[in-house]
Amino acid sequence: MNILFKIGFNIIIKKINLLSINYQKIFFLSILLGEKSFRAKQIIKYVYSFYSDNLNLIKNINIKTFKKFQKIIFIRTLNIYKIQYSYDGTIKFIMEINKKKIETIYIPEKKRFTLCISSQIGCFVGCDFCFTSKQGFNRNLYTSEIISQIWNVFKFIIKKKINFITNIVIMGMGEPLLNFSNIVSSILIMRDKYCFNFSKRVITLSTVGIVPALDKLKNFVDIKLALSLHASNDKIRNIIIPFNKKYNIKSILKSAKKYIKNSKANKNGVTIEYVMLDGINDKYKYAYQLAFLLKNISCKINLIPWNKFLKSKYKCSSIKRINNFSKILLKFGFIVTIRKNRGIDINAACGQLSGEIFNNTNFLL
Ligand code: SF4
Q1: Would the CB of 135 count as within 6 Å of ligand 1?
Q2: Which parts of the chain register pLDDT below 70?
């Protein structure tokens, strides 16, 4: 065990943030330290039951053992820079990373309490209708930074005695599949029964369709998939999502089909997200085209009324057009929902997240 202990310390050249590892890895660290395996459970339970970032407060471990752990682990969470409350109950958490900001949104409904988390600072994809893209790309979030968003909100919820998070959507700032390894390890922590213990059916990853990453995702995690399609043909999609030139609609749908084939989380089908942009992708002929495109895919379609921001050339489709678009798809037997926009007054709705860079009401129309 002594040899293991020494090897362990040679391998661990940097201290590890507990929010970046799941139970299995803490278990492995305990063994490396020559400790009994139950120590891992003691530590992880403390982090995810009491939501304290002060390891010195752990009471059930003796000093000698604690000091051993302290040499290799620590907890560091993101600083909550600002909290904004919407009239509809939505809460926006602006968190800070070296003076950069990311946003995390708590969306309460009757029976569902969803947390929308970010995966990158900014975004590389550059969707023309999305406010996040206007700040460009800064960097990928580390696993601990992704997990810290959930951890911070849980801590807030416990303190304020509001409803616990029931669902996680990875739909905030950034394209999660361009931050593959950190997203996969974060999902493993979300799923871990000693950490957040979320079921595979309540975690949704939303992607524009990064085909090579989507192709390998099934080897690591089974979670719900939402495809940000937003167009029924490549000509329009090339304009609103420039990444489409790299991975076109056909290749994305083929890859998505492979992912959901043996996925238990997606047994009711994948979600197709379609933002409604006036005069761009909302003509009725495109609803027919979409129905044809999706005819062999088990899916439901979520129509998203576009949320405005200054200097955008887009306009949201009218309610009448969205309803009629939806009716055409319903005729083909699809399940169609129209997304309720939440948190518009605090710029927390879909496509409005900017990491506070433009969070000044003057920037809104
Ligand atoms: S919609 Fe998503 S993928 Fe596209 S720019 Fe915005 S954050 Fe990035």
Answers
A1: no
A2: 1-13, 354-365
